[in-house]
Amino acid sequence: MVTAKAETKPMVRCWLCGELVKVKFSCKGKPYVIYYKCGVQVFVRNKRGAALLADKIRKESNYEQS
Ligand SMILES: [Zn+2]
Question: How sure is the predictor about 4, in pLDDT bands with cuts at 50, 70 and 90?
């Protein structure tokens, strides 16, 4: 089956190398990014961070949040 959108997963660019990395969500709904290639781990724990991350996701991965 082919889905309508090629890119449906939220992703952001690694702040070190610029490659796209999947954004995951904890059981409490907090977003986090783990990028093993660069050893980067980012956890977003408050509203400001979550809002900025959502903006970054929209700009960098064409991901539409419902
Ligand atoms: Zn990187």
Answer: low
Positive/negative CA dihedral, 17, 23, 28, 30: positive
pLDDT at residue 63 in the model: 74
- Give the length of the chain: 66
**First vs last C-alpha separation in the chain:** 22
Give the tens place of pLDDT for each residue, 28-50.
989 999 999 999 999 999 999 99
Distance 2 CA to ligand 1 centre (A): 29
For residue 1, the CA-to-ligand 1 centroid distance in Å is 31
d(CA 3, CA 51): 28
